[in-house]
Amino acid sequence: MTLDQVRALLRWECEKAGSQKLWADVHGVSPAYVSDVIQGRREPGAMLLDALELELVKMYRRKPVTP
Question: Taking 90 as the threshold, does the pLDDT of residue 52 lie above it?
Answer without folding.
Answer: yes
